[in-house]
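Reviewer 2 asked us to include a model.

Predict the structure of this chain.
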Amino acid sequence: MVQFRRNPVTSSSRKPSNPLAKAVDRAKHSKLIHDLTLRGDKPLNLLGTPPDIWRGSVRSGTQMVCGKIIGGGHPLENNDEAQDIWPDKAIWHSTDIDKHWLEYLHSFNWLADVNQAVDQSIAKKRAQELVEGWIEQNTQWDEIPWRPDIVGERLINWLVYTPLVLDSIDVVYRGRVLDSLARSARHLMKQTSELPEGPNGLKAVIGLIIAGLYIPKGEDWLKEGSRRLSQLLLKEILPDGGLRSRNPQELLHIFMKLVILRQSFTELEKQPPENLSDALGKMASNLKHMSHGDGKLALFNGVILYNHEDVKNAISKLDKNEIADVELEQSGFARIEKGKTVIIADIAPPAELELSAKGHAGTHSFEMSRGDERLIVNCGDASFVPRKFSEELIVHCRGSAAHSTLVLDGRNSSQIGPDGLIGAGITNMVMQKFEQDGHSLIESEHDGYLPRYGIIHKRLIYMDAAGNDVRGEDILETKAQPTNNDRLPFDVRFHLHPNVSVTLSTDGNMVYLGLANGETWQFRQSGATIAIEESIYFGEAGKISPCKQIVLMGRTGSNITTVKWALKKG
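Predicted model (structure tokens):
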């Protein structure tokens, strides 16, 4: 039995906004002080460049060099220009950009896409005008551009894509870029004693080490970064290779950066931190377990599927004997794989408050695939969807109803606060996994609805040895006298991939599901009323796809309410 606990979140758990503290922080990072503390030798060249081993998106790169800004496959809207074009350096002058877009822009992660543009001369011109525009507008400290994780990612990207960023005959521009790289590294060096929690701390430290490897006179950055990385790998990478933030895509991106880092150490004939290879082996195992048959990640806690992000390709950067043989456990997911069928389930509370900004209230949700075809999904992440589709979509897609799980009284199992962090809700969860004669069963329960309604939610998911018979039970059990004695409405939702065809039987008791590969599956249930409703899928970058969902509706009984459901291959 595995038990997960999350610290209860109360109003006192959240750090109140402190205008005075913010004013002091801004004063500490004022232009004068910031400039003084970051001064130092200006490098005249680099000692090399990190290996470029990860492809970006050709489609996004093509759009970027034509003047658009692309994130998550979607263009950033520009109300002042037709076709959402951002000419020259205009992006750095805009004052109407959402925080998640600003983080993406200032990280320069999009350089991987620009690097894939067919016309490299245009790609260089576009990259360099955006880099130059950034330097002109962001010498002075500001919260997002100079946040440690953003600085770390920007350092990595400018150095990896040096052929784009620095291939210029303009010596003044080259000097400003090299100086900005060194200043950024000095900024991170100052921050090593107070790094942020979670993946953001890792991003900052990896950036510092990369700078120490490739920028002249960076020995101190390399030494301090390596020391801190060894500590953070032990803290942030769980024994099963997952992250404390519970975001599989963040895990993939950290894995990619660490692979680049290790190859850099090797190419420069330097000794990497001793626990780096061990961490990579565990992370590769976790990524493998969190992937479907199509080679891409399950949609939990902010994952967006990109065509160029293939997990099999990522873990192939390690030797097979380096990949650890660890099962999912500590990271809060469970996997059943039989034949061609894969089920991946979320069986833990959301990440702790300070790590939950990208998390979803999707506890007890699951995804199911058959070979390289996805059948049951979660709705995905709408962070980069254009505003015209409603800003509320971002929050909605993080909610329980956008996941394949049970929702009681229309409420999230863990509440998403106005600050975007996941607050009150699940604090305790128990899970057991059973195997017998090739058959598998996951049994779990959470207390997310206990404080408000006195009810716990139990879920059982079973799969036979062939992977052709999947059954489940959702149980609502009263553990305490609820404040509201009325019978409460509930929905058990099964979101279906857009490629799945759906037909409700004439008697309304069965749903026929057709996969693109020609297979058919039958869905049955008891204990509720079945309906087919519209849904929407944000899983694939750049797409907003209508799809269907099976909804089992009912009301709670006096003590125990049970809904049984089954999926069987036709």
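The domain at 366-569 is CATH 2.70.98.70 (Beta-galactosidase; Chain A, domain 5). The radius of gyration is 25 Å. We have added this to the supplementary material.
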